[in-house]
Design goal:
121 residues; alpha+beta; HIT family, subunit A; 2 helices; 21% strand; binds guanosine-5'-monophosphate; binds zinc ion; Histidine triad nucleotide-binding protein; Histidine_triad_HIT; HIT-like_sf
Length: 121
Amino acid sequence: YVHAHDDNCIFCKIAAGQIPSRKVYEDDELFAFHDIAPWAPVHFLIIPKRHIPSLAHTGPGDAALLGRILALAPQLAAQEGCNPYPDGGFRVQINTGAEGGQEVHHLHVHVIGGPRPWKKA
Ligand code: 5GP
Ligand code: ZN
């Protein structure tokens, strides 16, 4: 099963430029953009351009893609103004499924940071 583009998916449309967003980063397989309702001074999302519904839909064949997303997080966090470790830092969060609090069903990695207080602890 190849996850391609889901015509009903808002993040597929954002990655394709069909819905506007404040872009943070783009390459051939990844896209990053600011969250529309930020929980903290810095809050952006990193997504694969390919439609993968959630982290629960990934497997060993997605290890390189997931690794690329995770490796990008600290670079973009610094670029977007998160202060350095350890006094600064940032949070990486992947909500997965209903009990995990996932609302948009296209895999996305939250990167959250900047000076506290944050709207969510
Ligand atoms: P989830 O709860 O699924 O992990 O988080 C989805 C996130 O996507 C939320 O933080 C929400 O604010 C963000 N979001 C939902 N729709 C849009 C949109 O159209 N544009 C942007 N930039 N963010 C969105
Ligand atoms: Zn999608």
